[in-house]
Amino acid sequence: MSQQLRRMMFSSVELFCLVAEYESFSKAALHAGVSPAAVSRSIARLEKHLTLPLFIRTTRQVRLTPQGKIYFDECKQALNQILEAEQQLKNQNQQPTGLIRLSVPTPYGHYRILPLLAKFSQQYPKIEIDVQLTNKNVDFIAEGYDLAIRGRQFADSNLIARQLEQAELIVVASPEYLKQFGTPQYLEDLQHHQCIQFVLPSTGKNVPWLFNLNRQIVEYVTTAKIRCLDDILGTVTLAKHGAGLLQTYRFIVEKEIENHTLVEVLTEFSGASRPFSLVYPSKKHESFHLRVLIDFLINELKNVN
User: Domain HTH lysR-type: where (predicted)?
Assistant: First the structure.
């Protein structure tokens, strides 16, 4: 096939996709800035090349044949990839600019995201970021957020999720507490201990503790005299002052374990984790400055596990 013919076929594919989307030769022609006759000739040329009909034409309607539907799905995907590649090339010569509204859980924000945003801001000085630290799920549309980071699994077909990490869970307590009440050896021992509990703001229920028991992840629901209803970091303060046992993420209490203000227990049953993911509304193409932040966070956090 000659280069001229290849260019003609590519143009025909673009016009074919427009006709399929608008279900009209005249609307496709208006959008493309050509005559309806030119669109008709282009489709005829494409059908001749493929040796199969792409449209069923009536006086009132233009609709895809079954073969045309298959061809349209593939062509549309290919054209979107071409458009995305073109946009990426253009973006390489542009400085990303814009405002991003980001919602992050309190502990993950303090220990993971905020330190990275300082680095990000130096690399991309024209991007502004409004950060909300909260443990509540946000409504993207009603509250106007672009990105959120969420822990635990969720199901929402309107959102895209990109996992950042599987955060390991461990149980800790202060040396003073363990000296007074003893060190638990088995999961059954938890019922005889004070367990500091975090409560999910969205449900009002205690967050179950997770353990690795015989290579199976099991849930353990504790009873607690002291519960924190919003700020997970409050549970760490309670644990450091001897209020009881606490299950939390390892990344939150690494320094406390190093300086011996907290001690890890029940290590035989460790290995459970919860995911943290970047989520954002489903779109065909994210804005350039938003995609820059998404790629940056994923790249920076890929080696934390």
Answer: 8-65
- The 3-state secondary structure of the chain reads CCHHHHHHHHHHHHHHHHHHHHCCHHHHHHHHCCCHHHHHHHHHHHHHHHCCCCEEECCCCEEECHHHHHHHHHHHHHHHHHHHHHHHHHHCCCCCCEEEEEEECHHHHHHHHHHHHHHHHHHCCCEEEEEEECCCCCCHHHHCCCEEEEECCCCCCCEEEEEEEEEEEEEEECHHHHHHHCCCCCHHHHHHCCECEEECCCCCCECCEEEEECCEEEEECCCCCCEECCCHHHHHHHHHCCCCEEEEEHHHHHHHHHCCCCEEECHHHCCCEEEEEEEEECCCCCCHHHHHHHHHHHHHHCCCC
* Residues of the chain where predicted confidence (pLDDT) is lower than 50: 1-6, 284
Domains of the chain: 3-69 (1.10.10.10), 98-165+275-303 (3.40.190.10), 167-273 (3.40.190.10)
If 0-12 CB within 10 Å is exposed, 13-18 middle and 19+ buried, where does residue 289 land? buried
Tokens of 112: 């993971």
Q: How far apart are the C-alpha atoms of 16 and 25, rounded to whole Å? A: 9
Q: Which of 268, 278, 269 is nearest to 298 (CA)?
A: 278
pLDDT digit string (tens) for 120-163? 999 999 999 999 988 777 777 677 888 999 886 555 667 888 88
